[in-house]
Design brief:
The protein is an alpha+beta fold. It is built from five helices and seven strands; from the N terminus they run E-H-H-E-E-E-H-E-H-E-E-H. A seven-stranded mixed beta sheet has the order 1-2-3-4-5-7-6, with helices on both faces. The longest helix has 15 residues. The protein is globular. It starts with a strand and ends with a helix. Bound molecules: coenzyme A. Coenzyme A binds next to strand 4, helix 3 and helix 4.
Length: 156
């Protein structure tokens, strides 16, 4: 069972540091502040010592949920937390009656793409040069999970 709570402004320093340790192009502190200001749904996940080891941020837009960020600390990766956090996001999206969850992921980030595909996401399109990269720009894969379709399968 995940130990989680809403992200607070006072968590941002720790969350930004965590993301810096996990990705090459992390959000800035201001990105996190803007996200909380915009009332995006943001959770932090705590270990037994009540330290943050993961977070996720979701933006609800009409009947869609946009997964803006998901991150697990490097020393906690590979233990199924990413998968459980994604399940939490899917449950949330269902609770607020979203019909679709969408997200962008770097074309080189096969690990995250694997995680999303296992959860039932499909590739919808490619956004050319969406991300900054070491050598210029990198494409984003736009992925989506149709929740109506998912509920049809899970009812069987
Ligand atoms: C992507 C991320 C959230 C996954 O979190 P995690 O806790 O490691 O994920 P899990 O342990 O639940 O593993 C989920 C799936 O990832 C893949 N995976 C896990 N460990 C892996 C490894 N060492 N190598 C390759 N794939 C791996 C597998 O497909 C796994 O599914 P399975 O083991 O059930 O077959 C995490 O790696 C992360 O925070 N990465 C940096 C930030 C990032 O890339 N976020 C996504 C932005 S779109």
């Amino acid at each position: 069972m995940l130990n989680l709570r809403d992200m607070q402004y006072s968590d941002i320093a720790a969350v930004a540091k965590l993301e810096q340790s996990a990705t090459e192009f992390p959000w800035s502190v201001k990105n996190f502040e803007d996200s909380l200001k915009a009332n995006h749904k943001a959770w932090v996940f705590l270990n037994d010592a009540q330290q943050i080891y993961a977070f996720t941020i979701v933006q609800k837009v009409v009947d869609e949920a946009h997964l803006l960020n998901i991150c697990v600390a490097p020393n906690a990766q590979g233990n199924g937390f990413g998968r459980q956090i994604l399940e939490h996001v899917i449950n949330y999206a269902n609770t607020v009656s979203s019909v679709l969850i969408v997200l962008e992921v770097r074309s080189s980030n096969k690990r995250a793409q694997n995680l999303y595909m296992r959860a039932g996401f499909n590739e919808m399109s490619i956004r050319k040069g969406y991300y900054p990269a070491k050598d210029g720009r990198e494409d984003a894969v736009l992925m989506g999970l149709d929740l109506d379709l998912l509920s049809l399968f899970s009812e069987k």
